[in-house]
Write a structure and sequence with these properties.
This protein is α+β, with helices and mostly antiparallel strands. It contains 7 helices and 4 strands, in the order βααβααβααβα. The protein binds adenosine-5'-diphosphate (ADP) and magnesium ion.
Length: 140
């Protein structure tokens, strides 16, 4: 295993309920370190660009509306095997299918409002980090 970086978003359903600290506690508890973080309100263009891979999906417009419905917290997480570890602590996309003790099982409201995003592989991690952060903003 190697030290990796991954990209994370705490989504608007979680900022609305003021549970960003509870989520960060889960990430840190899993051995992930927050090496960059900012709170921002995504523009429609930013959300559409970020989720461009899903643009043909039936849920795309709703997803963009949800992701721009309130502020988010964008983060870079660092740690051993960080990409897989983050996906593990997040849990399945649909909270009904998520394992006990995962963030989505415990906090998600629905398959759409599922509290967190995490990169799904090394290439997406690199692209997604660069979408929101300059290298100088990442402090390991
Ligand atoms: P993940 O976030 O687990 O990687 P996907 O990349 O498949 O999941 O989907 C991106 C996001 O789109 C999900 O986190 C969720 O917010 C939303 N989404 C996925 N599938 C659906 C669906 N069937 N209905 C509504 N929203 C969905
Ligand atoms: Mg995904």
């Amino acid at each position: 295993m190697a030290v990796e970086r991954t990209f994370s978003i705490i989504k608007p359903d979680a900022t609305r309920r003021n549970i960003t600290g509870k989520i960060i506690d889960r990430l840190e508890g899993a051995g992930l370190r927050v090496v960059a973080q900012k709170r921002k309100w995504l523009t429609r263009g930013e959300a559409e660009g970020f989720y461009a891979v899903h643009r043909e999906r039936t849920f795309f417009n709703d997803l963009v509306a949800f992701m721009t419905s309130g502020p988010v917290v964008v983060q870079v997480l660092e740690g051993e095997d960080a990409i897989a570890k983050n996906r593990e602590v997040m849990g399945a996309t649909n909270p009904e299918n998520a394992d006990a003790g995962t963030i989505r099982k415990d906090f998600a409201e629905s398959i759409e409002a599922n509290s967190v995003h995490g990169s799904d592989g090394p290439d997406t991690a690199k692209t997604e980090i660069a979408y929101f952060f300059a290298e100088t903003e990442i402090v390991g």
